[in-house]
Amino acid sequence: MDIVSIVMIVFADLLLSSIFLWLGMKVASLYAGMPLSTAYCSFFSVIKVCFLSALCRLIPYVGVIASWIALFYLLKKETEAEIGELLIMVLVSKAFALATIFFVFPLVF
């Protein structure tokens, strides 16, 4: 795989993960009983967490596991949310991303 493909994959992962993690944070804030206007952290912090998680995914053989560990650790550090709220954030964001991959990408490609 050439470097341009790797950069494009990391950029697409960063874009989708950031948007869907932001939506996941909104759902988790509703679950926690917080007003929808409040947020756990800024969107820039979400981009930073997703970027570092996407970089961890590039590690051969253990990248997926390292990416999930980095995602949870960095989210815990940035948001100071409880583990249940973190699970809701990540599960909602991954469900939206999976739905996008299954339903939107076949229409585009």
Unreliable sequence segments: none
Helix content: over 70%
String of helices and strands: HHHHH
| Spatial separation of the terminal alpha carbons | 20 Å
Number of helices: 5
Strand content: under 5%
Question: Could you provide a short overview of the structure?
Answer:
The protein has five helices and no strands. The protein has 109 residues and is an all-alpha fold.
Provide a descriptive summary of the structure in words.
79% of the residues lie in helices and 0% in strands. The chain has a domain at 18-93. Helix 1 packs across helix 2, helix 1 crosses helix 4 (83-103) and helix 2 (43-56) runs antiparallel to helix 3 (63-79). The radius of gyration is 14 Å and the shape is globular. The chain has 5 helices and no strands. The longest helix is centred in the N-terminal third of the chain and has 30 residues, at 3-32. It has 109 residues and is mostly helical.
Write the layout of secondary structure elements.
Elements: H1 3-32, H2 43-56, H3 63-79, H4 83-103, H5 105-108
Record keyword descriptors for this entry.
109 residues, mainly alpha, 5 helices, globular
